[in-house]
Amino acid sequence: MKVGIVGGAGRVGSTVCYTLVLLRQADEVYLLDMNAERAKGEAMDVMHTLSAVESDAEVHGGSDYSGLEGCDLVIVTAGAPRKPGMSRLELRGINRSIVCEIAERVARHAPESMLFIVTNPVDVLTYHAWKASGFPSERVFGLGTYLDTVRLRSMLRKELGVGYQEEAYIFGEHGDSMFPVFRLSSSYPRQRLMQVYEEVRTSAMKVISSKGGTWFAPALAIAKVVEALGSGGKCTLSTYLEEHGIYLGYLAEVSMRGVRRAEFELTQEEQEMLQRSAQVVGRAIEE
Ligand code: NAI
Q1: Active-site residue numbers?
Q2: Which CATH number is 94's domain given?
Q3: Could you tell me if 33 and 93 lie in one domain?
Q4: Which of 32, 53, 200, 219 has minimal CB crowding within 10 Å?
Q5: C-alpha distances in Å from residue 116, one per residue of 109, 119, 199
Q6: Ligand 1 atom nearest to 142, measured from its CA
Q7: Model confidence pTM above 0.85
């Protein structure tokens, strides 16, 4: 698989490249960034690991969109990250034009690719990238609440000993109106589950306050999505929801044929929470 990463010289983009190469999930990676020199340096640094993982992957960097030609997948991590105290939605003004311009250029240079948005606010920007690219909705998707789901499962395991394969998800906006969806095979006190969820909801900001950003957990979550694209799987991605006309975190069937909402029934209460997320994201798209 040839993967392009736009914003590839940044913390998330370069860590995604490193992770994909270590896990041998890409044959070729092109790191595109407005900082061409740094993109080249990150590519060289990752290339130097190849003998250690016995890989023949090609890794290049630069700021030339022709480097994206032939990409099966383009991941967009370009744009400003949050600062301590900032909500993801506050980034939409600054990141919208960046992501729209990138989506248009990706559509010209890699017209057959799938477009995977990571830049925040991810649900809002996935919608704008879909419009700007002109791609069918199943070829554009966002990281959505998959990272939150990975965090939730990590913390449920640590706090309550819940098995990693148990059905525990986060759906909705990758932001303040996200909500948990538990389908666990044994019963745990609801109050404890909600305490763990509450920790997850605020966990990214704790990391940002301590080290200035998050990139290891996002990069591994992104690599797991790439794995699912290659071999088929299900993840809670920012997926096009026909009845809302926007993208929101929902369990999705993932493959190189496209990302589509999976059959998954929500309770009445969960549907109401999804509706609330749809209102928040819908308003942010219109503004
Ligand atoms: P960063 O500042 O380290 O990297 C951003 C990179 O984008 C920089 O290298 C910059 O030169 C590049 N860039 C900016 N405008 C560009 C353009 N027009 N064309 C090409 N390159 C451009 O930021 P970091 O920490 O890597 O975060 C990137 C984004 O990912 C942020 O919006 C952040 O909020 C988001 N993020 C999303 C997550 C999610 O779960 N959806 C998780 C973690 C981060």
Answers
A1: 174
A2: 3.40.50.720
A3: yes
A4: 53
A5: 15, 9, 27
A6: 41
A7: yes
